[in-house]
Amino acid sequence: MLYETFKALHIIAVIAWMAGLLYLPRLFVYHADAAPGSKESETFKVMERRLLRGIMNPAMILVWIFGLLLAWRGDWWHAGWWQIKFALVAGLTVIHHLYARWRKDFEADRNTRSARQYRFWNEVPTMLMIGIVFLAVLKPL
Questions:
Q1: How far is residue 59 from each of residues 18, 104, 115, 122, measured CA to CA in Å?
Q2: Exposed (0-12), middle (13-18) or buried (19+): which is 79, by Cβ within 10 Å?
Q3: 90 with 62: CB under 8 angstroms?
Q4: Which structural domain range is residue 76 located in?
Q5: Contact 125, 18 (CB under 8 A)
Q6: Cβ proximity of 60 and 96 under 8 Å
Q7: Tens digits of residue pLDDT in 87-121
Q8: Phi-psi region for residue 99, left (φ > 0), alpha (ψ -120 to 50) or beta?
Q9: Is 91 exposed, middle or buried (0-12, 13-18, 19+ CB in 10 A)?
Q10: What is the pLDDT of residues 39-76, one digit of tens each?
């Protein structure tokens, strides 16, 4: 029962984290087109900060906690599929921190990236997520 509880909590945290990883760069797309100091820009700053601090950061932490607990309970440390999944989740974590840095740039009105660049980065977590889900479900290696 403990394993299933960890799994359920892990899935809930993954859903929340992925929602943020997909929505934050979309906010950046619109924010990049807003004039610095404008009402729209200030609204985006609040939305981005609340999303990152209130949802994404706690969800990411819970993903790692429950994911590592699942790996421990399942004794997967040496499974090839789990090691690749771990690397992909580490990649999502790097992207999370990259988004956090970009949010700080917007907060300080220092954004130098175009809306087009943020559109590209909006797709990267999706690609990693696809690999992660297939590895977790199929356990091919």
A1: 9, 20, 26, 18
A2: middle
A3: no
A4: 2-138
A5: yes
A6: yes
A7: 999 999 999 999 999 999 999 999 999 999 999 99
A8: alpha
A9: middle
A10: 999 999 999 999 999 999 999 999 999 999 999 999 99
Residue type, 108: A
Question: What do you get for the CA distance between the two ends of the chain, in Å?
Answer: 26
Which tokens go with 62?
A: 């819970």
Question: 37 falls in which pLDDT band (50, 70, 90)?
Answer: very high
Q: Give yes or no for a contact between 29 and 119, defined as CB atoms under 8 angstroms apart.
A: yes
Q: Which two tokens stand for residue 103?
A: 């949010």
Domains in the chain, number: 1
DSSP-H helix ranges across 33-114: 39-50, 57-74, 80-107
Q: What is the CA radius of gyration of the chain?
A: 17
For residue 91 the two structure tokens come to 């990649």
pTM here is 0.94
